[in-house]
Amino acid sequence: MDARAMRGSGEIFEASVGVTVPFYRFAKHPVRCIVRTNRRSAVVYVNYAHLYHAGNFADVHKHLVLTALLTRLSEKPSPWFYLDTHAGEGLYTLKAGTRGARGEFETGVGPIFHAPSDSNIVRAYQSLLHGFNPEGILIRYPGSPLLAASLARPADRMIAIECVPERAQQLRSHLGSRSGGVHCRDGYEALGAFLPPKEQRGVILIDPPYESIRETQHLLHVLPHALSRFPRGIYVIWHPFVDPAFVSGLRRRLQTLGRVCFLDWLTTRRQGLRGSGLAVFNMPYRLGSELEDVWHKLGDLYKDSLGPVEFTQTGALPAGDPLRIRG
User: Fold this and answer.
1) Helix/strand/coil for 65
2) What is the reported pLDDT for 318?
3) pLDDT(105) > 60
4) How far is 92 from 100, CA to CA, in rounded Å?
5) Which domains does the chain possess?
6) Active site residue 321
7) In the chain, where does DSSP find H-type helix?
8) Are 201 and 208 a contacting pair, CB within 8 Å?
9) What are the distances in angstroms from CA 301 to CA 61, 111, 296?
């Protein structure tokens, strides 16, 4: 039977004895994570590295939402602030045979790259992609910091955190004139160092690899402090859909911290990454309704490449009613 998440005294997520914990290998060299049970420990592989999954459907999901959020903030003349706690290298080559390329972009960014759309959000995202691929074919995929930098106006400010020195250096070279905003340090520690921002409005993206059970512990430890320091900020937390126990346990804790909505892209896959989840604190007014139109369009677009897909929004619409779209 599936593991059932509950709040334990020693670990954030605990499972009952005798549960079957599935194995997930998201990265080329997965990191072992320990899920505590009453009498034994089970190994779960949950390492989602940007390098190995660039341009997949989870990237499309989070980057459409990021594009929508920063575009909305840019509707006002006052500058905004962007903080990326797990920035990665920033730009990834999608060509087969290159370092890290796995071909996941073919069922991710591939279908949407040239797809006709009447959605302003989709068209803005496509415009950003085409800017990094002037050849008209998909060769490169920009990560979150490069997308944010492309949307930023001169007065807007961004901080990108990457804890691996080599990747931080690559990110600096990719960001060019905005390379001064790159810091090689711990992403969770950066929440305390850079919040609140002087701009008093902005987006904080927390997109960790979930390589350890302690990843979630760190997140839930620092997030309440970040929310108290910068309560007006828009916080976007990405997580994979793997074991249902992990998702439900994390979300129960997030719901205790403030006004949060959940935006999900689910597939019918039985192995690997089965879905992409976003928890958004302080979603801008009516942006959920605009995203609803995006999910309707994507349901038809991706049913051939990914199989049956489902998009859900909980707490993102003005009426507060959950949205469920099947494609």
Assistant:
1) helix
2) 60
3) yes
4) 9
5) 48-326 (3.40.50.150)
6) no
7) 50-53, 57-73, 109-113, 120-132, 144-151, 165-175, 187-194, 213-229, 244-255, 287-302
8) no
9) 13, 7, 9
Per-residue confidence band for 51, with pLDDT thresholds at 50, 70 and 90: low
Tell me the per-residue pLDDT of 287-311, one tens digit each, with 9 for 90 and over: 988 998 899 889 889 988 888 889 9
pLDDT value at 33 more than 50: no
| Angstrom distance (rounded) from CA 160 to CA 149 | 10
| Cα 197 to Cα 205: distance, rounded to the nearest angstrom | 14
Q: Which long-range contacts (CB under 8 A, 24 or more apart) does 316-325 make?
A: 316/261, 316/262, 316/263, 316/280, 316/283, 316/287, 316/288, 316/291, 317/288, 317/289, 317/292, 318/285, 318/286, 318/288, 318/289, 323/288, 323/292, 323/295, 325/292, 325/295, 325/296, 325/299
The residue annotated as part of the active site, out of 59, 156, 207, 264, is 207
Question: Among candidates 48, 45, 37, 46, which has minimal Cα distance to 15?
Answer: 37
Give the pLDDT confidence of 134-144 residue by residue, as tens digits. Answer: 999 999 999 99
